[in-house]
Amino acid sequence: MRRLILLVVMFSWLGSLAANLPALIQNIPNRATTSLDGPWQAIIDPYETGLNARFYLNAKAKDKHELVEYDFDRSDALNVPGDWNSQKKELFFYEGPVWYKKSFSYHKREHTRVFVYFGAANYFTRVYLNGQALGEHEGGFTPFNFEVTGQIRDGDNFLVAEVNNTRRRDAVPTVNTDWWNYGGLTRDVTLAEVPESFIQDYTVQLARGSSNEIAGWVQLSGSTSAQKVTIEIPEAGIKQSFATDATGRAEFRFPAKLELWSPNHPRLYDVSVSSGSDKVHDAIGFRTIETRGTQILLNGKPIFLRGIAMHEEAPVRGGRAFSPEDAQTLLGWAKELGCNFVRLTHYPHSENMTRLADRMGLMVWSEIPVYWDIDWENPATLQNAENQLREMIARDHNRASVILWSISNETPVKPARTAFLRQLAEAARQQDSTRLITSAMNHVDEAGPDTRALNDPLGEYLDVLGLNEYLGWYGGRPEDADRMQWKFAWDKPVIVSEFGAGTPYGRHGDADERWTEEYQASLYQHQITMLKKIPALAGMSPWVLMDFHSPRRLLPGTQDYFNRKGLVSNLGQHKQAFYVLQKFYQEMDSVQ
Ligand code: GCB
Fold this sequence. Notes:
By secondary structure, this protein is α/β, with parallel strands linked by helices. The protein has 7 helices and 33 strands. It has an 8-stranded parallel beta barrel, surrounded by 4 helices. Helix 4 runs parallel beside helix 5 and helix 6 packs parallel to helix 7. The longest helix is centred in the first third of the chain and has 18 residues. The site of (2S,3S,4S,5R)-3,4,5-trihydroxy-6-oxo-oxane-2-carboxylic acid has 9 residues, from loops.
């Protein structure tokens, strides 16, 4: 009974800590930080013993009598960042809690606040510093931070994180996905030091619909009264100062003469935001993105999104990608393909990806893992999805590359789902008025022998309609596409956000033989014939750049736990279809 009470008290305490999760610190890569990456001692805890046994205390037996049934320092290490599944063979299929511990030393400084920042941890995380709970976080692909100013010690410290990737019906994503459930501290862990009053977040972007006016806001944390905030863009001759209100927020709007960011000219400006003793630099591009009828307009001109969809899976070594080098390889292939656009599925990718996309001139579709049939009627699930959406937007709202926030992928058409997604669309619009809202939909109606119609009521709440269709793979034959006509219930731009076919690299046969490179290449050819005839088409992102691990792809000798629809294999070998799409994109580029 005592134990039960203890647990109840503990959960409600942790619950209240979660509600108080401090707002995200913007632009962690350009702050004063110390990396906590590297080996962390890890205890695999399949029966969830650790919470009851208080692993977070990192205890040692004090004498020969005391019973302590765990020991971080005699446990194996896991590398951070990194998922555990790809680091140890015996953890490949593991789903459950793993307890991580990192010892580090710290030198305390006057007038300095300290935060611990997690780039992402999949899926549910509880964090403790020196045995004290900091809080918890749900969601596997977005960052979170805790203030540790009061808990951190001068000298030796230890940080413990329990990361649990158990799938749950009510979670986002839910129990069923077509990608590997890589668990762990999958992105960088950082200690950030900031002044007592500091620049917690800001947005410096072109005003909605304007190419010569900047609009935005700065939010200070810990400010006592109205304070001065200065925005400088030296290369554009801009220096503007504003006063914050009582809540530490300054909103602004001022004229600016800027070279605009575009795929052909990915111009980034050095922007600094300063206030009191805090100053932070960022590299920001300025562009507008809008729709007009069925067109997408970048900087006021129609643009066709020559894209590819991709998972954040590491080429060659496998596992969750996390490094700048991984990003370089993946986005480098997209460039080689002739893309000006990438669909980063099905969850927010690391900040390395969106920052590199900024520099490379790739437009980005960024998505939350509201995938397939989640628990639509559950208010906690909605709150969770909203929180992941908020964290995605909070991290990347200064990235010129990001033009589309996607709220979901292939969700079934029913009233509870549409109401749920409508709320997400409204929340996204409210948090960011400058980008477009989309979703990948796949529910289509037969509107005649060779006509399909997308009538999904969700379309009403979106700016851009995403359509996933697998004609020639999950139904029909590739050549059926030649005759297929498409109708859309709204006068809005359409992105064919997925089509594709699977084959292992190097498997050859006739064009009508499944699981061959020839079949995949022929399907791409027929799809291109069809897509050219869709007047509302404003872009495409075929499925998928690289083969990726999936627990649902079991065909021995062909899939072996890989979804093989990649245009390149997991080892980077280019399949024939890569060159079919490349040719099409090169031809399009020359006519644009
Ligand atoms: C889809 C999903 C994607 C799958 C893909 C497939 O429609 O959006 O996550 O991996 O199809 O290969 O079946």
